[in-house]
Amino acid sequence: MTRTYISVTTPEDAAAQKCETAAYLAGGTEINRLNSNVEAQTLISMKKLQELKVVEDLDDYVAIGALCTFQELIENELIPDYLRKALLFMGSRQKRNMATIGGNIACLRDDSYLLATLVAADAELFVLENLMIRRIPIRDYIKREPNDDALILTINLKRNFDFVDSKRYANTVESLSTLVVSMVKDAGQISIAAAIKTAGIYELPELAAAAMKPDVTEEELIGIAYDLDLPIEDDFRGSAKYKRYLLGVTVKCMLEAAAKGGVR
Ligand SMILES: Cc1cc2nc3c(=O)[nH]c(=O)nc-3n(C[C@H](O)[C@H](O)[C@H](O)COP(=O)(O)OP(=O)(O)OC[C@H]3O[C@@H](n4cnc5c(N)ncnc54)[C@H](O)[C@@H]3O)c2cc1C
Question: What is the pTM of this model?
Answer without folding.
Answer: 0.97
